[in-house]
Design brief:
It is built from 6 helices and no strands. The protein is mostly helical. It folds into 2 domains: about 100 residues; about 35 residues. The chain is elongated.
Length: about 150
């Protein structure tokens, strides 16, 4: 039984172009644009390559899948090494903090919370106003009391 449809555009040159794009850190959208392939075709090829690798089949799709994943991981590794170097050798604590926030989600910077107090003094007595201020003060103290991580500590 013969296959129906147009032949795949996937070839060694396309794989090399995608591999190069990912090794430089391009997004899938930009990598596909660089290699002149549609994202849907790329996604289909990657899924097929994943399945072929799972089935231990050596196909061009499995080769694409393997090489793209390797290029992406090499890019990540090289950039993580630069961040580590900046943190250790150049004493750039912000590099360490950036990495810590991304690898260990519990250390992510929390969005700033705004405490807004709206008081209509025509409807509240002085005693009620004081209670509102005390409640607001307590909310602010709770926000401030969150743990702080000192990255400069040895």
């Amino acid at each position: 039984m013969s296959k129906v449809g147009r032949p795949s555009k996937l070839n060694e040159i396309v794989i090399q172009m995608l591999e190069k794009a990912y090794s430089l850190g391009m997004s899938p959208k930009l990598a596909c644009h660089h290699a002149s392939v549609s994202q849907s075709s790329y996604n289909t090829w990657m899924q097929r390559g994943e399945q072929d690798r799972y089935d231990d089949e050596e196909t061009i799709y499995a080769d694409l899948n393997r090489r793209v994943k390797k290029a992406r991981s090499n890019h990540a590794l090289a950039n993580l090494a630069l961040i580590q170097k900046a943190a250790k050798e150049e004493k750039q604590w912000t590099a360490a903090a950036w990495l810590l926030e991304r690898v260990h989600k519990e250390y992510q910077k929390q969005p700033e919370q705004i405490v807004e107090v709206n008081v209509d003094n025509r409807q509240l007595s002085v005693v009620q106003l004081m209670k509102e201020l005390q409640n607001s003060d307590q909310e602010i103290k709770e926000l401030i009391a969150r743990p702080v991580i000192d990255l400069d500590e040895e």
